[in-house]
Design brief:
Length: 241
């Protein structure tokens, strides 16, 4: 019911820019330029967790990009999913443009905790992933969302945890649902998330996908894409790509 009401209210109630608050526009041109104007780049957090896939990010997690992600995730401004999905699609293209293989791109979202989804009334990463898949298909790239990851045990709130604490918190926390390995075998896997902080979530997702497919990494599961990452992660690789 909450998700349905948010969908309807987003169509009939006055809106303001999710990036800067400017009235009567979902995302103004200036904020849209911050989200879409840069070239997606490979990023690495420091320290880099073991098993982290090759990650590409569309933008730095600051200013309008940070505000838009929080508005979508925490305030339920669902109309922002299209713009965020377009940014994620750009990161997917950047990360898979030179990767061989057959079959469609399978966007596998990192799952949120069930209690977080219940509290928010929606799953922000899955919603952005669906928008990204649609954007990729419009560009002639076969893509679909395969939401086969789930939490197999409860985890603590990640807020306030350091890199090693997050890794310990998430170790062994994810698994592929029964039968999911067959779906993953049908294409090239790209793990997706809205935000990369320490990389612990993506590393755990890659481990779970690899375990389900019977080897360290499923074909293509060494690739991941996110909407945003801390600016320092971009700086590390600014001269390396």
């Amino acid at each position: 019911m909450r998700g349905w009401w948010r969908e309807i209210s987003g169509l009939v109630l006055p809106v303001s820019c999710g990036g800067c608050g400017r009235p009567r526009v979902q995302l103004c041109e200036e904020c849209r330029a911050e989200l879409h104007g840069g070239m997606p780049r490979r990023v690495r957090p420091v320290p880099e967790p073991v098993g982290l896939p090759v990650v590409y990010a569309a933008a730095a997690y600051e200013n309008a990009v940070r505000a838009a992600l929080l508005a979508h995730k925490e305030r339920g401004e669902l109309g922002l999913a299209g713009a965020l999905g377009k940014a994620l699609a750009g990161a997917v293209r950047a990360g898979t443009g030179h990767v061989g293989g057959v079959g469609p791109l399978l966007l596998v979202p990192v799952p949120s905790a069930r209690r977080a989804v219940a509290a928010r009334g929606h799953d922000p990463t899955r919603r952005i992933a669906r928008a990204a898949a649609g954007e990729l298909r419009c560009g002639g790239i076969r893509a679909q969302v395969v939401a086969v990851l789930r939490q197999r045990r409860a985890v603590a709130d990640q807020a306030g945890l350091g890199a090693r604490q997050r890794q310990a918190n998430l170790a062994g926390a994810l698994e592929v649902v029964a039968g999911g390995e067959r779906l993953l075998a049908a294409g090239r896997v790209v793990l997706v998330d809205d935000l990369l902080t320490t990389g612990a979530s993506l590393a755990e997702a890659a481990r779970a996908v690899g375990a389900a497919c019977g080897h360290a990494r499923a074909p293509g599961s060494g690739r991941a894409a996110v909407v945003a990452v801390s600016p320092s992660a971009f700086e590390i690789n600014r001269n390396c790509q």
